[in-house]
TrEMBL record:
It comes from the Eukaryota. Keywords: Endoplasmic reticulum, ER-Golgi transport, Membrane, Protein transport, Receptor, Transmembrane, Transmembrane helix, Transport. The lineage of its organism: Eukaryota, Viridiplantae, Streptophyta, Embryophyta, Tracheophyta. This is ER lumen protein-retaining receptor. Pfam families: ER_lumen_recept (PF00810). The chain crosses the membrane at residues 55-77, 98-115, 121-140, 152-170, 182-202. Belongs to the ERD2 family. GO terms for biological process: protein retention in ER lumen; protein transport; vesicle-mediated transport. It is a multi-pass membrane protein.
Length: 215
């Protein structure tokens, strides 16, 4: 644990709180990609299966349960809640997210640290998480009115991964001195995908304007 990982975890948690706040208080999921949320369920289930095989700490266990639980909860709201599901932008959320899963899994089978079930699943979750935001970013490009909570949610998601990159760099210099190419490169890809959004988010905040992405 270090300050960058803690900040990353808290930023990630805050992003989920923003999203649940939007869904619970506004009874709306407009502008939120169900495809991205379903990919996150796959990511967290694959990454945190070690809950049943290994104990690290109370903090680690609680955070894993929170992210699994909240991701499933969000998907349930968007698919089954009688009010919230009516606000889902189904016609605009058309990215075929399922095509991302097989190549990420095949890549994990070929490029991993050690060939064990848990390690391959952990690697798969990193690869899939790196591209899971694509449906959400494409949906935002098609959305004319991006509300503040949605904008904050996506910004915090991107910031969380950037902070985790700093965590790995910190650990390289201060702790292990081991190069971890898989989390480094997947984190770089994920952060790069947010670059355009970061630019327009900061620009809109600086100029006190409504957030809008170019089509």
């Amino acid at each position: 644990m270090n300050v960058f990982r803690l900040a990353g975890d808290m930023t990630h948690l805050l992003s989920v709180i923003f999203l649940l706040l939007k869904i619970r208080t506004m009874k709306s999921c407009a502008g939120i990609s169900l495809k991205t949320q379903e990919l996150y369920v796959v990511v967290f289930l694959a990454r945190y299966l070690d809950l049943f095989t290994r104990y690290y700490s109370l903090y680690n266990t609680v955070m894993k349960l929170v992210f699994i639980g909240t991701s499933v909860c969000i998907v349930w709201y968007m698919r089954f809640h009688k009010v919230v599901k009516q606000t889902y932008s189904k016609d605009q959320d058309t990215f075929r997210h399922y095509v991302l899963i097989p190549p990420c899994f095949l890549l994990a089978l070929m490029v991993h640290r050690t060939f064990t079930v848990m390690e391959v699943l952990w690697t798969f979750s990193l690869y899939l998480e790196a591209v899971a935001i694509l449906p959400q970013l494409i949906l935002l490009q098609r959305t004319k009115n991006i509300d503040n909570l949605t904008g904050h949610y996506v910004f915090l998601l991107g910031a969380y991964r950037a902070l985790y990159l700093l965590n790995w760099i910190y650990r390289f210099f201060m702790e292990t001195h081991r190069i971890r190419w898989i989390p480094w490169l997947s984190g770089l890809v994920q952060t790069a995908l947010y670059a355009d959004f970061f630019y327009y988010y900061i620009k809109s905040w600086k100029n006190n304007e409504k957030l809008k992405l170019p089509a």
